[in-house]
């Protein structure tokens, strides 16, 4: 079975790595839409059109499901993608529910890109689960894009993280939700600044659990049979912006030995 995983850059690799750990027998196709990045600078209509185009590409590659491993794309475009594609489509949402459950002081920070931070979906999730928690929604217009430029951007990323964490410490935050899939790639930087008493929550475990549920529902014979396999699946990595950044992109993949192809494609939208 083959799963398509998409993001604007390297962020979705946090989801891909967890899929690989939990279901190693799946073939994975990772598409980094670097040509169109950053999504935060695009209009909602453009993001919807682009994500649907990526979904059609995955469909042509005969994938069995699509993981939209990008908070911004999920918030803006997942409904449009599901309306166009018959395959199971799994999105990623800010993990606010577990954050509110583990917070001891009831001070929770949600760090997102501006589009996600101002989205109606995030407001709905917070309203649904917050109870008596104090919620601090924070955003960075540049952090995700700078992470894609790592390690050349290391100093800039570290400075941004320090400034964000200083605000969190001043606000008494004890739980941080990383509401962009890029941010877990530098989770250690946040942990170093915030210290051991601050819990850091990211969504990859929940996304993979939902992927397993959807595969069981959609392929009740095929998927359970696959789980008995001892053969590890392949990983194919695709960029929409040529191969110049491919080594940097694949450096985030934990199981690099399973990478069988590195490609560049030109999407029409």
How are the elements arranged and paired?
Blueprint: E1 2-7, H1 13-22, E2 27-32, H2 44-60, E3 65-68, H3 71-84, E4 89-90, H4 96-102, E5 107-112, H5 114-117, H6 120-129, E6 134-139, H7 143-148, H8 154-170, E7 175-178, H9 187-194, E8 199-201, H10 204-218, H11 222-227, E9 235-239, H12 246-250, E10 259-264
Helix pairs in contact: 1-10, 2-3, 8-9
Can you tell me about this structure?
This protein is of the alpha/beta class and 269 residues long. It folds into two domains: 2-92 and 204-264, 3-Layer(aba) Sandwich (Rossmann fold); 96-201, 3-Layer(aba) Sandwich (Rossmann fold), CATH 3.40.50. 44% of the residues lie in helices and 18% in strands. It has helices spanning 13-22, 44-60, 71-84, 96-102, 114-117, 120-129, 143-148, 154-170, 187-194, 204-218, 222-227, 246-250, and strands at residues 2-7, 27-32, 65-68, 89-90, 107-112, 134-139, 175-178, 199-201, 235-239, 259-264. β9, α12 (246-250) and β10 (259-264) form a beta-alpha-beta unit. The longest helix is centred in the first third of the chain and has 17 residues, at 44-60. The radius of gyration is 18 Å and the shape is globular. The mean pLDDT is 93.
């Amino acid at each position: 079975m083959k799963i398509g995983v998409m993001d604007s850059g390297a962020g979705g690799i946090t989801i891909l790595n967890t899929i690989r750990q939990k279901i190693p027998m799946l073939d994975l196709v990772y598409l980094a839409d670097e040509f169109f990045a950053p999504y935060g600078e695009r209009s909602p209509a453009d993001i919807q059109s682009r994500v649907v185009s990526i979904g059609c590409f995955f469909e042509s590659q005969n994938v069995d499901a699509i993981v939209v491993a990008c908070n911004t794309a999920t918030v803006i475009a997942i409904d449009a993608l599901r309306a166009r594609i018959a395959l199971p489509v799994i999105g990623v949402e800010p993990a606010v529910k577990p954050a509110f459950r583990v917070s001891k002081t009831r001070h929770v920070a949600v760090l997102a890109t501006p589009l996600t931070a101002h989205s109606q979906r995030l407001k709905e999730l917070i309203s649904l689960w917050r109870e008596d928690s104090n919620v601090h929604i924070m955003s960075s217009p540049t952090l995700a894009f700078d992470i894609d430029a790592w390690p050349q951007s290391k100093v800039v990323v570290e400075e941004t993280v320090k400034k964000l964490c200083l605000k969190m410490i001043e606000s008494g935050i004890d739980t941080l939700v990383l509401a962009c899939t890029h941010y877990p790639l530098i989770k250690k930087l946040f942990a170093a600044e915030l210290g051991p008493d601050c819990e850091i929550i990211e969504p990859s475990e929940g996304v993979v659990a939902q992927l397993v549920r959807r595969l069981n529902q959609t392929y009740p014979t095929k998927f359970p049979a696959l789980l008995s396999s001892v053969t590890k699946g392949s990983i194919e990595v695709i960029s929409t912006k040529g191969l110049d950044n491919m080594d940097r992109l694949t450096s985030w993949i934990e199981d690099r030995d399973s990478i069988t192809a590195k490609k560049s494609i030109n999407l029409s939208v």
